[in-house]
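Entry 14. Structure prediction run on the chain below.
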Amino acid sequence: MDLPPLRELVAIPRVWVRLGRVETRLIEATEATTAFLTEIARHGLQAGGKRYRPLLAQVAAELGDNDGPEPVEAGVAVELVHLGSLYHDDVIDEAATRRGAASVNANWTNTIAILAGDFLLARASEVAAPLGEEAVALIARTYATLCEGQTLELQLTDDLDHGADEYYQVIGGKTASLIRTSARLGAMTGGADPQTVDAVSEWAWEAGLVFQLTDDVLDLVADESFLGKPAGSDIGEGTFTLPVLYALAGPEGDEIRSLLGNGRPHGRTAIDRVIDLVTGGGYVDRVLDETMERVRIAEKAVSGLPSERLCDVFANLDRYLLARVDSARRR
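Output returned:
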């Protein structure tokens, strides 16, 4: 089953016009005084990506009546934060690729990747500054939260004894916080009233959790051609996601501990066996049930919005995340 393109799910022409302007502004915002830094800052942009976060900002901006440039700038700011954080993450993970291209750290050096990431984060603040003090504070607070989530994930690496609470702290910090900020900043700059801003923020928090939950499930049920990396990469890196944590607490726990408890590197045979135990024990389905409950909470948060069309769009975006898993399983 092929996934529907996002353009079909978000059938609002003005959103896509503004998203095109976001692309132009991203190129402008990543121009440095030296050609060398400009090339590095744009490397991640040119590798592609769905621009999910700036898309959310443009959709949320439809909740107000501002047709000015501010929602576009909001989209640029959140994508620059996202890209800068990816540069830093790739250094931490020693990643060789990103979006099918060589990562900045692999193509140049860790030092260059860190400096370029800092440059992108600084530019995000610069872009957000004309949007007002609240916007700048929101961007800064969100990046602090991203760092907290990433730090906790590092603390929990190879830890077989933590549980769902810590897992949700990690994904809330490193994923859901920026997705929430994307929608919140879009609604704010679009001119939505405070109650509406809060409603779409609640939707986006739950959608952000769904985004990461489904991504973690894909690592267990999709193949390398779908993922662009080997299945079970999280396990191989010592990052144990929710289905694995649930399996560790179940009858399969002793065998999983024997496979993973001696530290890395974990061989391909061990990783494949853990995947079999987790999927065969029903833990992926348990997490997908949990994910559906998050979707219901998200959709309830925006059910009172005056625009039925936008409610449908938010529901489509939720279902799109779930459809990725269905698509991977049917391959």
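Residues 235 and 271 are 7 Å apart (CA to CA).
Filed with the rest of this week's runs.
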